[in-house]
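Can't paste images in this forum, so I'm doing it all in text. The chain is below; anyone willing to post the predicted structure tokens underneath?
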Amino acid sequence: MWRLLRDRRLSTFKFRRQVPFKNYILDFVCFEQSLVIEIDGSQHAESQGDAAREAALAAEGFWTLRYWNNDVLQQPISVLEDILAKLAGR
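Text version of the structure:
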């Protein structure tokens, strides 16, 4: 995913990876859009910890998109198109 997001490769959006924020490490973040992207494995399915994390980030003005590891590995273009569509819809 980093290979696809780095160096403003997704339109002109600047992403950073593995960013410490409060008590969390954000997988990918675009500060100009207040967007956090999390790439998760199956251990995160219906995770209450993730819900609490999203609520804490929302309280700081961030919105979160989550994608499964398999989707990123098998359908990276679809994931990028989804991110762009959601950014355009904001």
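The domain at 2-88 is CATH 3.40.960 (Endonuclease; Chain A). The radius of gyration is 13 Å.
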